[in-house]
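Example 5.3 — Phenylacetic acid degradation operon negative regulatory protein
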Amino acid sequence: MSETKSARPPAAARRSRTLLVSFLGAVVRPMGNWMPIAGTVELLAQSGLDASSVRTAVFRLKKRGWLESQTRSGLRGYALTPAALEALAAGDEVIWHARQPADLGDGWCLVNFSVPESARAKRHQLTAHLTSLGFGNIGSAVWIAPARMLPAAQRAIAELDLTEQCAVFVGDYLGGQQLTTMVRNGWDLAEIDRRYREFIEDYQGERDRLAADSFTDGKHAFVTYLSVIDHWRKLPFRDPGLPPEVLTEDWSGPAAVRLFERLVAELDGPALAHAAHYWTAQRAGL
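Solution (predicted structure tokens):
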């Protein structure tokens, strides 16, 4: 869920938390849903976070109910809680939906809500959450996304206990205003496209280097892998994967997806092998 402006942490703290969340999803889950704190501090230092920032971010996620203290083989660390695993899985659903364009024939999910002024904070939270899920605003309190976003919308509404204040529909476009016009009004497609192009500009050179080299250094692979994941996972939350029929021919999303998939395929093996060294007592100096 998004935070109110007054409660937003400084940029450095937000980066620490977002990078740690990326680390939890991309590294800790495949390593058995548990991480040694000493090894985590060392690894994230390689990505530019100091020990204090990492420990503060861990403390905040523990307070949020994502992590619980757990010692394994004499190493102090933290295990992912069921709440964390559920939240990460929900994030996966949104992120990977954007990799494949929606089928126009599946229809659309519409959310309309009427939240009283007394619950204004919840109204703002719901608006922010729908935006983060990739819904577009096409009218007063009317939000739309491809039909496959129905479960995510229902969860967002239920989390805020606003089920009685919302109406959710799934249906087809039948006529009236041009669908392409409605889409352009509902989403800032130029900004979404700019972000995809920025991703390509930032990482195409890395992809070319990987293709040219027969050996990938483990540390470099880990740092690049985590950077790619952290950068990419923010993009689909603004773009739920619109049908190609409503997008321009030069839409950069597919090219960005192909680049992301190639980078992940080439980096995840050496990156996780590098991280595995920090899960051992010998590495921690015990």
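Remark. The chain has eleven helices and seven strands.
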